[in-house]
Amino acid sequence: MPTLRDASTVDAWVAEDATFADAARALAASGIPAVAVLAGGSRVVGLFTETNLIAGLVPAYVRELRHTAFAEDDLEALARRGRAAAGEPVTRHLSRPIVLEIDTSATHAAERFLHGDCGAAAVVERGRFVGMLSRVELARLLLARAGIG
Asked: What's the whole-model pTM score?
């Protein structure tokens, strides 16, 4: 049975004292849908996701609406919100992390992804951050084990 030791992870994280802008840059550079936010350089306290990024860049009312086709873009409001968000602590913009121990089976990791809405999970070994695992990387591992990849 494959475990997450057999998967490639990405070293994508920011410290818990990082700003929104720091996390946004790390997320953009990572190539995956989330980066870990770490305390003490190793303990996962949350994830900064693509959804957190977008939510932080738009005025709060946009998050409450279910349909915005009627609304005109207010470019100045978007710019103001983006400038304000840039200096905010990343801890104001976190999602609950999916955290998987490195010896977790690929089947259990798949189940966690299927029941979560984030496209990446933090992988730890005895509580210390190892890297981020994307859904795509887990799929590669499963495809390879099935002889398809």
From this structure: 0.91
